[in-house]
Design a protein that fits this description.
The chain is of the alpha+beta class. It is 38% helix and 13% strand.
Length: 85
Amino acid sequence: MSDPIETAIFDLLTPLAAGKSISPEEAARAADPEGWRRWLPRVRTVSVGLAREGRLVITRHGKPADPNTLKGVYRLRLPLPTDGA
């Protein structure tokens, strides 16, 4: 995990209770508190890749979203055992 965005995402998610999520902005701010806005497209790209690998869940309106058709506002969380069911 050498990507600063991937590191920020997992550093923020790991201590959270199961099912809790973070915003993309939180990940960007963790990677670069001053210039976080320029990191937002990278957060989306990394998040989609991690979701495709099954290491992350992207949610919209509290429900898992398809990373291949992601549009609009989203949040990030770690996978739950029930996600595969």
